Amino acid sequence: MKLELETIPVWDGVASKSECYVCDLMAEAQKDALSFYLGNSVMNPGTRVKVNESGFCTKHWQLLTAANKPQGIALMTDTYLGMTRTKFEKSINSLLGTKNPRQAKKAIQSLKEDMQKREKGCLVCSAMQQRLDRYLFTTCYLWGEDSAFRSALQEGKGFCLHHFQLLLETAPAVLSGSLLAQFVHDLTQTEVLNLDRIANDVHWMTQKYKSENMDKPWNGCEDAHKRGVDKMTGRHRVIDPV
Ligand SMILES: [Zn+2]
Ligand SMILES: [Zn+2]
Questions:
Q1: Which InterPro entries match (predicted)?
Q2: Closest-approaching ligand to the CA atom of 236
Q3: What is the mean pLDDT of the chain?
Q4: Which ligand is nearest to the CA of 241?
Q5: Which ligand is the nearest neighbour of the Cα of 164?
Q6: Distance 209 CA to ligand 2 centre (A)
């Protein structure tokens, strides 16, 4: 695997003691990719061709339209809708010309296939995916090369389950032999400790709602439900890369 190392953001991430620094880095990657499609790049014909072909996933179309930059979105939507109309022409004519149930079912299926192709891929997700691959690679690489990073990762709060699994999946391309086995063991140990920590926090939160515990301290568990959900699912993840 040949990937550019991203040592500085990954070191900053591990030093931040976040619940999942990969999620934080993905939030940045998403922001950067959205800014690109909200900026002057949409005036560039090459960008518009890419938008016409791939478009965005529903989440990223929504974030783009919510960003209060209507002119650029109008330009992209204008040509995207035109392209969609062209791609759907055959299916629409079949739907309009249907004469019997067999033709109707065939036309409905054809539109479904067009929709599936049209909705596949997202330019923001694919930009995020490229950065994600580099962050995962760098994390495994630094763990193998730098004992200070190894300790920092062990003392950290682990990752969301989604990025934990992706790190494990990346590891065999970066580490080998006993190092790979040790990485898998150490990362899992840190992850399980931190899952248990959050589970205890969430449990205390449920107990705090009982009247007998009303006057007891929260112990920092006021937001444990949110941290629990984030830990299980990841706050920022790639949905639909091209
Ligand atoms: Zn994450
Ligand atoms: Zn997307």
A1: DUF6062
A2: 1
A3: 94
A4: 2
A5: 1
A6: 38
* Integer CA distances (angstroms), 118 to 98, 129, 205, in order: 23, 20, 44
Which residues lie closer than 8 Å to 63 by C-beta, 6 or more apart? 30, 34, 124
Distance, CA 16 to ligand 2 centroid (Å)? 26
> Domain boundaries in the chain?
7-18+128-233, 30-123
Q: What is the DSSP letter of 22?
A: H
Q: Are 116 and 87 in contact (CB under 8 A)?
A: no
What does the pLDDT look like over 125-145, one tens digit per residue? 999 999 999 999 999 999 999
Question: How far does the centroid of ligand 2 lie from the alpha carbon of residue 176, in Å?
Answer: 33
pLDDT confidence of residue 2: 64
**CA 69 from centroid of its chain's CA atoms:** 23
Ligand nearest to the CA of 123: 2
Assigned token pair, 212: 């007998």
227-238 burial: b if 16+ Cβ within 10 Å, else e = bbebbeebbbbb
